[in-house]
């Protein structure tokens, strides 16, 4: 399950071995395509990756901090540091492969 992330809980939320933040907006059609993919993957990878979502309309300062220019954007954090950013729509298989590859790098 993806948890809502705000300025209030951001620092605590990303302070894990690996965290994925989904930057989205309610009006973003591609975000609606990615939402169920990430929801499924958040359950599959629940033991290894912390999953959250950031509504850019409500948390513009977080989006600016991580230079989110398009949506949906996935930002990968390791130990509280943003290390990579992926923008666009991907299949569940593509994202699962990406997450598996990144877990091997920790």
UniProtKB/TrEMBL annotation:
Catalytic residues, chain numbering: 28, 31
InterPro entries registered for this protein in UniProt: Thioredoxin, Thioredoxin-like_sf, Thioredoxin_CS, Thioredoxin_domain
Q: Which GO terms describe its cellular component?
A: cytosol
Annotated site location: Deprotonates C-terminal active site Cys: 22
Q: Per the record's keyword annotation, is Transport included, yes or no? A: yes
Q: What is this protein called?
A: Thioredoxin
- Provide the GO biological process annotations: cell redox homeostasis
Q: List the disulfide bonds.
A: 28-31
Q: Which residues belong to any copy of the Thioredoxin domain? A: 1-106
Pfam families associated with the record: Thioredoxin
Supply the NCBIfam families for this chain. thioredoxin
Record's keyword terms, sorted:
Disulfide bond, Electron transport, Redox-active center, Transport
The organism's place on the tree of life at top rank: Bacteria
For molecular function, the Gene Ontology terms on record are: protein-disulfide reductase activity
Which species expresses this protein natively?
Apilactobacillus ozensis DSM 23829 = JCM 17196
What family does this chain come from, according to its entry? Belongs to the thioredoxin family.
The family database entries (CDD domains) matched by this protein are listed as: TRX_family
Show which residues form the site (Contributes to redox potential value): 29-30
């Amino acid at each position: 399950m993806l948890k809502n992330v705000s300025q209030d809980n951001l620092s605590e939320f990303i302070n894990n071995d690996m965290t994925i933040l989904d930057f989205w907006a309610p009006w973003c059609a591609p975000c609606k395509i990615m939402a169920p993919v990430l929801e499924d993957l958040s359950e599959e990878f629940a033991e290894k990756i912390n999953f959250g979502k950031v509504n850019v309309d409500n948390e513009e300062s977080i989006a600016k901090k991580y230079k989110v220019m398009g949506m949906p954007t996935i930002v990968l954090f390791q130990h509280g540091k943003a290390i990579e950013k992926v923008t666009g729509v991907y299949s569940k298989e593509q994202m699962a492969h990406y997450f598996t590859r990144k877990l091997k790098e920790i």
